[in-house]
Amino acid sequence: MTTTYDPFDAAYFVESDLREEMTRVFDLCHGCRLCFKFCGSFPTMVAFIDEHEDQDAARLTSDQQDQVVDECFNCKLCYVNCPYTPNLHEWNLDFPRLMLRAEQVLHRERKQPLRHKLADKALANTDLVGRVNTAMAPVVNKAISTPDSRVRRLIEKTVGISSQRVLPPYARQRFSTWFKKHAPRLGRDRQATAVLFPTCIVEYQDTAVGHDMVKVYERNGISCDLPPGEVCCGAPYLHHGDVETFREHARKNIKVISEALHSADSAAGSGDPDAVVVVPQPTCAYVLKYDYADYVGGDDAEFVASRTRDAAEYLVEIRKTDGLELDEEFPGEVPTSITYHAPCHLRAQNMGLKSRDLMKLTGAKIKVVAECSGIDGTWGLKERNFDMARGVAKKMAKAIDSADSEIVAGDCNLANGGIVLETGRTPLHPLQVLARAYGIPEERS
Fold it and tell me: In what order do the strands lie in the sheet with 365-369?
């Protein structure tokens, strides 16, 4: 048995070693039960162990262990709440990373049904799908826009993406195309430089978030750079266990981003702050901050990780840095109340709720909802997980309905799709809330 979360460890991909480590962790988690409420994995694990009179986790079969793995959607909230994590306790527990290790071992060793493989490929190859679907956006959007339609049921049968899930439409103009045509207009003298990592969601679908991010940054004297050659962060591959393809994506991005950061640093004036890479979606920011260093490693990966900021996180950092300023005049439209959904992968970064802090500056009253949407990457988009995902999202929906705020805001586009499905309300990204408060009009296509 090897307690390791290092994918370069010789024992990491040895299935027998993994099974023994899962037994150790399941036994400890069964005794604690602090994370019982977060997902189906923990109740399932506890129920399997409780079937045996001696409550010995070693009695679980491989299939039972695998079911615990399959029901984990890696929200990472158990890690955030666990008192026994590495460097804090001798038990050295990191349940989300153990589940990722299991996904990666099973990806190599387990035969998956064809439909499961097709779902993984369809959800993971975001750049290819995005390029094709933006080129055919009117036709594609008409086909996918109605949940449980005939087309959506066909997609569900063939590739396993739930016919009932709300899917974001594709933009006719990609964000990178818009950015090339955009004429920068700084609202004050340049204070800093941000290298953009827009993510696939913003590049191909929710481009409005990218437009408002750039305009809000420029209003605050932050010049924006979008280096060519960025690709999907690779999270969908990592989450379904394909480490090698994930590393291919990671290496491309690390090279492009590190070069752009070094170039921005070289062009900066004396006394200017270091350039950063800003990311408007929490899952992708988490990947750049943590997973690139863990699964690729090296000085460049560590450099990119150290310079990565969530898009709201960086604005709060600017506000708190001596010699730099954030515009806190809001002549535009400010809602009286906002329900802010704090996504799991943002909370897992342990940086506080920076989007909430930004929106508070406008004078709006903020109600925070920190319940999981049940999406977490692509897990909740799959038909085989749909009912479990909706079960997880019930508490979130109830909290949003109870808050009854004027608008709903959330950083994660995929979680926001879950909010649409569960509540019928369409959230804004916090930077869009800030843009409207500044009086920046929404970009019209």
Answer: 365-369, 337-341, 407-410
CA 410 vs CA 46, 153, 371: distances in Å: 33, 28, 12
Q: How far apart are CA 134 and CA 309, in angstroms?
A: 28
126-147 pLDDT tens trace: 999 999 999 999 999 999 989 9
Give the CB-side neighbour count of residue 236, counting CA atoms within 13 A: 23
Integer Cα distance of 95 and 5 in angstroms: 10
Nearest to 315 by CA among 429, 153, 168: 429
Model-wide pTM > 0.90: yes
State pLDDT tens for residues 241-280.
Answer: 999 999 999 999 999 999 999 999 998 877 789 999 999 9
Query: Per the domain annotation, does 24 fall within a domain?
Result: yes
For residue 91, give its domain range: 15-109
CATH number assigned to the domain comprising residue 384:
3.40.50
Residue whose pair of structure tokens reads 């490929």 in the numeric block: 121
Cα 51 to Cα 20, 24, 34, 47: the distances in Å are: 19, 18, 20, 6
Token pair, residue 428, equals: 């804004």
CB atoms within 10 A of CB 351: 16
Name the domain count of the chain.
2
